Amino acid sequence: MTVHFQIEYFTHWGQELVLCLSMPDGSCTDLNMECDGRCTWFVNCSFTDKQVGTGGITYRYVVRSNGIVEREESGSPHTIPASKARNLVLADRWKDAGVSELDSRTVVIPHVRICDGAQWRGAGMAIPVFSLRSSEDFGIGEFADLKPVADWAASCGMSIVQTLPVNDTILTRTWRDSYPYSANSSFALNPMYLRLQDVGTLSDRKFLARMEKVRKELNSLPEIDFEKVLKAKDEYIDRLFEEFSDSCFASAGYRRFFRENRKWLEPYAVYCMLRDRNGTMNFNLWPEAERHYSPELLKKYGSPDSECHRLILRHCFVQYHLHVQFQKIRKYMNERGILLKGDIPIGVNRYSSDAWIYPELFNMDCQAGAPPDDFAIDGQRWGMPTYNWEAMKDNSYQWLVERFRKMADYFNAYRIDHLLGFFRIWEIPLRYGSGLMGRFNPALTLTEEEIHAKGFSQDPRIFSEASYGTSETEVLFLEDTHRPGTWHPRINAFDTTVFQLLSPADQDAFRRIHDDFYYCRNNEFWSGSAMDKLPVLIGATDMIVCGEDLGMIPDCVPYVMERLRIMSLEVQRMPKSIHANVSDPASYPYMSVCTTSTHDMSVLRSWILDEMPDNPVISDRSAGPEQCAEIIASHLGSSSLFAIFPLQDWLAVDGNLRAADPERERINVPANPDNYWRYRMHISLEQLLKEDGLTLRLRNLISDSGRLGSARL
Length: 713
What we know:
Blueprint: E1 2-8, E2 15-22, E3 28-32, E4 34-35, E5 40-46, H1 49-53, E6 58-65, E7 68-72, E8 78-79, E9 87-92, E10 107-109, E11 122-126, H2 146-156, E12 160-162, H3 205-219, H4 226-249, H5 252-278, H6 295-302, H7 309-335, E13 339-344, H8 353-357, E14 362-363, E15 366-370, E16 380-381, E17 386-387, H9 389-394, H10 398-407, E18 413-416, E19 425-429, E20 439-441, H11 448-453, E21 477-479, E22 487-489, H12 497-500, H13 504-521, H14 523-538, E23 544-547, H15 556-564, E24 568-571, E25 592-595, H16 604-611, H17 625-636, E26 642-646, H18 647-651, H19 685-690, H20 692-704
Parallel strand pairs: 1-9, 11-12, 11-26, 12-13, 13-18, 18-23, 24-25, 25-26
Antiparallel strand pairs: 1-5, 2-3, 2-6, 4-5, 6-7, 6-8, 9-10, 14-17, 15-16, 15-19, 19-20, 21-22
């Protein structure tokens, strides 16, 4: 194994950093480190598998001047994790006295290439699994399609592929199940991503011929027809189950999978059976004895004597084959030098198997969402229930820990969707129809006495219910349903009629209350809230952690992310600085992922042509191939650890391969709760692999940026 050690340290003239290694046999080695001229020190070192396997290699950094040690780290030494990878990148932080182990956490990149320079940096592509297109598909992308994706990414010199969530979302059996952030289960994989042909070859040739015709018709469509694909795949899976289930259940592989996943698998399978038998996902409409999970239900329906037994086993059969196919793909991608980065949604569907099994973990009278921003001026309502953090904490966040560990079966890195939700979530009582009627949970709510003490002269109750015939948003305060008698100022209430009718003194007081509440009052409290949860979750796996920290960001968020070494998300059109309308990639920090656009935004070309404001960073508004290449190159040249771009934006640098209409490349419109997630590549992966000109151009862009390494995994 070769290990690339790197650490940022500001030295004075004449000082240098030395890596001091302590080996399992008791020997010690000192290695002089190199500096990139920008305060990052690095050195490469090789170890045998036996040395790493013992787990006994430790190290610390010291500062020397003229051969004399001037300073050394405090506390326990760093350790090299046991790993089967041939190359590791260890991004360290200096350990000072009085600093916790958490603050000095090493970022482990079990990867791919060891660069010759100081800071390892990688490039990659982002695309949902459902958007992939190959000649073998059934009208939707499948896990098996990630194999040619890995081949293409590796040939371009990339080192990471990012997907959207891949959990099971099948609830209504309609196109609404296309929404990947509304999961039926936080553990089960989506049956839509199963490569049916790889499960086994059916003996019924007439059925296979009919299905092949259906497959080709669905696969030729420009977009996903979710309902037709689901119907066809369900019929095919029924046949596969009848013909191959007995041999599957008798295999050692299935028995091991069942043993390791039984805790979530059996309740999930029972839920899916009851959902289908009762004809609705709304378990509140099921027979009373079935509305909440209990071990008795499993005994009743899971017994081999039950008529429902085979229906339950069918879901176990599907999950096993999804697991086998996905793990095989992850192994192949890693062997090709490609990290696989997943996405962990902030919530689950309110009628999901998770909510059915663990109702105590959710606030079912509320829904999560997002406060108003430039993309949704009325805020967003996502439908999913919010978490009951007190109940989760009582159980040491075990459900979340197990969820993160399950994702580690498939991914090397992950994005925490809506990271801000672990600080506080925008929570909207179900009785409201507008996202403006939300409030942050948790929050240090205001008592009536505090409101008066801050200069507001009137009773907040008077301003907490809209007058008859007016919009529900015509309020100034919202009572907290978890702590009755305490209040939240309604966000952005300054344009309401009720605010305009206040006296000037009360208007000024409300402004002060509002701004203090949202930007000052809760900062320390929200920081503590996040530090209660995130260290537990981050410590549950060795995956690389990235956070989606966009939107209304409290001041405490960057501090917590820096402390826990969670990579930030840097999007050029959503600058973190309040003084800029477009950010400059040259300013991005190392511990970040930078990108041109996300699945919630228009693609790069549409932004340049229709949305980009006048700015000092980008002057050319042509959106031609060269302009797109320049913008991507500026991101690749940044200090960000990862530069990951949507496949649509990578293709934009080629005038012949880019899609004719960039508007058809958009995946989601956040302000539209009825968005149909159906985007598919306009060319096949087989064709993409043959485009040597594009491959060479992208490889040159990546190489010129220093993100193309020299050693392979």
